[in-house]
Design goal:
The complex is a heterodimer of chains A (468) and B (213).
Chain A: H1 5-11, E1 14-19, E2 22-26, E3 29-32, H2 38-46, E4 57-60, H3 77-91, E5 97-99, H4 109-116, E6 124-127, E7 141-144, H5 147-156, E8 158-162, E9 165-172, H6 181-192, E10 200-205, H7 207-210, H8 214-222, E11 231-233, H9 238-244, H10 256-264, E12 276-281, E13 288-290, E14 298-300, H11 314-327, E15 342-345, H12 353-363, E16 374-377, H13 382-390, H14 393-400, E17 403-404, E18 425-428, E19 443-446, H15 449-458
Parallel strand pairs in A: 3-4, 3-6, 4-5, 6-7, 9-10, 9-12, 10-11, 15-16, 15-18, 16-17, 18-19
Antiparallel strand pairs in A: 1-2, 2-8, 13-14
Helix pairs in contact in A: 2-5, 6-8, 12-14, 12-15
Chain B: E1 6-13, H1 21-24, H2 44-47, E2 79-81, H3 94-101, E3 106-109, H4 114-122, E4 126-129, H5 132-144, E5 149-153, E6 158-161, E7 167-168, H6 173-181, H7 185-190, H8 193-206
Parallel strand pairs in B: 1-2, 2-3, 3-4
Antiparallel strand pairs in B: 1-5, 5-6, 6-7
The chains are: A alpha/beta (468), B alpha/beta (213).
Bound molecules: iron/sulfur cluster (SF4).
Iron/sulfur cluster is lined by residues 62-63, 108, 110, 129, 131, 347-348, 409, 412-413, 430-431 of chain A.
Chain lengths: 468, 213
């Protein structure tokens, strides 16, 4: 019977059928961060359990690490304690790959995995972080788990899982100028809602997806979780192989042909059945920007803030009204008139080198708006930072008035010092505009790096197409 | 984890859709390395008028009178009624830890986000989905009663409100079994030790480039 890519990944990791709807699944790679792992290690110690496979572990501190000069140390005692706990927990695991703060390779775990070639097609990858879906761009079955599951994987290298359903989103045509993978992701969420893919794994297909670089595919899969999906997937093709070639952890030359042979089988078979399908035309996607407190509260940048009065469903209407109050907006206000206090370019959605190149192209030789309190650019990893500096992008950013920081999650969730203050409005390339996400009382508008760049120059939410 | 056969208790209503885990437990409290101490910070930014900091004494903080779960009649509630896509967003298990500490043993919603639902089961919180019309009806009853007791019978798959007929609910078998069984899931999985080892060995032979990584 023809199978989907997800079916293949599932079957190839199935150890045992536990129930009619559940199986024991083998986990190849376990990414670990400082925030969601301490309780799992404590649980292991309490039961005197041993880690099943040290070599499956890739660990780094990213969520609450400072992005300023590491010489200054970590001033927040609580953050320091979590970073120290990770150091301690990894100390005895000599088989694990560990990129401690503030080492050269440290950064957002979802940026590090792919760039080092740790993320490979056909693997199961988990992490105590929902944006693990990012790695699905490589045909890896990658998803976020809670801390009890982190402990379960540490102890058994498996998870007892219920199989998800298959959802195909095929995108024909090509994205217009000024429209990026981030807009496509928001377009999907606008279309199906933040619960639209609950219980499903989304496979992105079609010529518009095939035309995306690996970095853009990562942006797309990263946001699949924002559509409620367990994860996102893109089948292996030449773009995948090209990216993986010569990465530090990629298969050696001798084993490369064999690996490629297997990897290229990781595509959905002709005629495979999906529980749900959606066909989109990339040509219809426009630059999008969120106005509210959920990624589905999103409009075209040329649009106005929607009027909840026009919504019939009372619950949805109340949700819209609450979001407007929180965001300090009135129905009918033009998105492009919204004045910004801060700009954040970073996060596992949009902090890779291609994102930074797009930003640099747009801001080169310009200055950010006078009234901005802060415009941060936070590279996703040490390697991204070094590459950007090699290309001179850092100078462009600094000359334009941006702050060029060290890698980490930073203002994506504001667990370190980088955050919004109550009432501050921010153009952000991250993935969540939830209440308080970027700082208590902060107001986030999600958008592509290109839109964030021109919005920084203007100090207002701005349509990037005017700058092309 | 204790087994959760049935829950009897006061019901409470949180009448919102898309309640995310950042709202259930804001990130400033995730800096703890413990599994406990989160209950007092559950819904912190909605529940209190001042800004919360990990380690502070919440008993003296000013409660937000407009937050529905702050109503006196909900103070000892153990069953939460809410709407669609509850627990969306971050995978943080700190959210169900906080809800559990706040006393919730069952959550009845129109739908749940995947990771959150799984994290609930891991912590003995029973996640139940009902249709929108049933949730509407029950929410109305809870809101308009001074005290509204509900019995959730997991073994029978029944919700018995103090007024009206029992409602049956569906739950996938493996989730139900896990909740009924309770106990140490890792211990249970380690029962498959040999099978896991054999699988690993086969995988290593079939995909040789994975070895030594
Ligand atoms: S960058 Fe943001 S979304 Fe990504 S892992 Fe860090 S906190 Fe999570």
């Amino acid at each position: 019977m023809p199978s989907t890519l997800y079916d293949k990944l599932w079957e190839s990791h199935k150890i045992h059928d536990l129930d009619k709807d559940e199986a024991l699944i083998y986990i190849d790679k376990h990414l670990i961060n400082e925030v969601t792992s301490p309780q799992a290690f404590a649980g292991m110690r309490a039961k005197s359990r041993k880690v099943w496979s040290e070599s499956s572990i890739v660990a780094t501190a990213d969520h609450n690490t400072p992005t300023t000069d590491p010489e200054a140390g970590v001033s927040d005692d609580l953050a320091r304690a979590q970073i120290d706990a990770l150091d301690d927990n990894l100390k005895s695991l000599t088989g694990a790959e560990y990129y401690p703060y503030p080492s050269n390779e440290q950064g957002i775990v979802h940026v590090i995995g792919p760039e080092l070639g740790i993320t490979q097609p056909g693997l199961t990858i988990v992490c105590g972080d929902s944006h693990t879906s990012t790695h699905g761009a490589f045909s890896a079955l990658a998803f976020g788990i809670g801390t009890s599951d982190v402990e379960h994987v540490l102890a058994t290298q498996t998870l007892a899982l219920k199989k998800s359903k298959n959802y195909r989103i095929s995108v024909s045509g090509c994205l217009p100028a000024g429209v990026y993978a981030k807009d496509l992701a928001l377009h999907v969420i606008k279309r199906i809602g933040t619960a639209g893919a609950t219980g499903h794994v989304i496979e992105f297909t079609g010529e518009a997806v095939r035309a995306l670089s690996m970095e853009a595919r990562m942006t797309l899969c990263n946001m699949a979780i924002e559509a409620g999906a367990r994860t996102g997937l893109v089948g292996v093709d030449e773009t995948t192989l090209e990216y993986l070639k010569d990465r530090p952890k990629s298969p050696s030359q001798g084993l490369w042909p064999e690996a490629v042979h297997y990897w290229t089988s990781l595509n959905t078979d002709e005629g495979a059945l999906f529980h749900k399908s959606l066909a989109l035309d990339a040509g219809e996607v426009v630059p999008l920007v969120t106005w509210g407190t959920s990624p589905e509260m999103v409009v075209s940048v040329t649009d106005v803030v929607p009027n909840p009065g026009l919504i019939d469903d009372p619950i949805r209407r109340a949700g819209f009204e609450r979001a407007l109050t929180y965001m300090g907006l009135e129905p009918g206000q033009r998105m492009q008139d919204l004045r910004l206090d801060k700009v954040f370019i970073g996060s596992c959605t949009n902090s890779r080198i291609e994102d930074l190149r797009i930003v640099a192209d747009l801001v080169k030789g310009c200055r950010i708006a006078e009234h901005l309190k802060q415009a941060l650019i936070v590279p996703g990893s040490g390697a991204v930072k070094r590459q950007a500096e090699k290309e001179g992008l850092d100078k462009i950013f600094i000359e334009a008035g941006f702050e060029w920081r060290r890698p980490g999650c930073s203002m994506c969730l504001g667990m370190n010092e980088d955050r919004l203050l109550p009432g501050e409005r921010c153009a952000s390339t991250s993935n969540r505009n939830f209440e308080g996400r970027q700082g208590q009382g902060g107001r986030s508008h999600l958008m592509s790096p290109a839109m964030a760049a021109v919005s920084a120059l203007n100090g207002l939410i701005t349509d990037v197409r005017e700058y092309l | 984890m204790e087994s959760s056969v049935s829950v009897t208790g006061q019901a409470a209503v949180l009448d919102r859709s898309n309640v995310d885990t950042d709202a259930i437990l804001p990130k400033q409290f995730m800096k703890s390395v413990k599994r406990t101490g989160f209950g007092q910070f559950a819904f912190d930014e909605w529940r209190y008028l001042d800004a919360g900091i990990l380690g502070m004494d919440c008993s003296k903080r000013q409660l937000n009178p407009d937050f529905e779960l702050n109503q006196r009649k909900y103070q000892n509630a153990s069953i939460l009624f809410t709407r669609e896509n509850f627990g969306c967003g971050s995978s943080r298990e700190h959210a169900p830890w906080a809800l559990s500490e706040l006393g919730f043993r069952a959550i009845i919603a129109i739908s749940f986000a995947d990771i959150f639902e799984r994290n609930c089961i891991k912590n003995g919180i029973i996640p139940i989905t009902l249709s929108a019309s049933e949730v509407d009806r029950l929410m109305f009853l809870v809101r308009t009663s001074e005290r509204f007791i509900v019995v959730v019978d997991l073994a029978e798959g029944l919700i018995c409100p103090q007024k009206g007929e029992a409602i049956s609910f569906d739950m996938n078998e493996s989730a139900r079994k896990k909740l009924l069984r309770g106990g140490d899931e890792i211990e249970y999985t380690l029962g498959f030790y040999d099978e896991i080892k054999e699988f690993e060995e086969r995988r290593r032979q079939r995909l040789p480039w994975l070895s030594g990584q």
